[in-house]
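Batch job 17 of 40 flagged for manual review because the log was empty.
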Amino acid sequence: MKRIRIYQKRAGAVAAWFLALGVVGCAPEEAFSDQAVTTQVLVRAVAKDAKVIGDGVGGARITLRNVETGEVLAEGLQEGSTGNTQAIMRDPRPRGLTAYSADAEAAGFLASLSVTEPTRVEIVAEGPLGTPHAVQRASKTILVVPGYDLVGEGIILELNGFRVQLLAPTPEESLAAGGTLNIRTKVTMICGCPTEPDGLWNSNDYELFARLLRDGEIVQETPLSFSGETSVFEGTLPLESPGTLTLEVFAIDTGKGNTGMVRRELTVTG
């Protein structure tokens, strides 16, 4: 009981602080006790300069850990849609607010934590899980207070990057020295949002290029141009001699801090 009384003395100030942040929950004397209280935390992993990472790209893995002990308090998959494009990307909104809380269909992970005292929690998001070579990771720590649910728009974790997929050459394609390597790649935001010149996600802002390496040394490089098909870019490189080569394709937006690549080993016959 002594512990509860000490917490109760501070309850008014604590309650005022959390109510000012828009946090909802039970009364302070209920939150600070020796009994575990189920407290909900909504987490959303979103793509930098884009939308929520949803089912279309495999979702995101969310893990919540006790910072002090390392104990996993909750983990699971973020599931749902990428959210409302108009609300997230176009509509003006008051300072400090995002559009995610207004869209019930936007992907998220609702964690139910069993905590007995104020606990520092690390939240980790990894995605998009449907494209393993494009998976990025973001984390942040928060204070979870028993009984005070952190829902609404949720705790937002922003993942930087592009989802770059190689359409051609395919692994089965025969390549011969003296020929031409035709490169086609699909470049989207990591939430799957499309890119194109002058589009909402404007590829004119990106550097898109491919290069061939032999034994780790760059031997050929070329920019990639828009194919006319949404999110698809293409270019060619000469295949000058036989051997094993590595093809790397890059998408880079230095202004937004988004980068992505895909790599494939190629065998060129004589």
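Reviewer: the log was empty due to a logging misconfiguration, but the result itself is present. Residues 122 and 141 are 4 Å apart (CA to CA). Unflagging and moving on to job 18.
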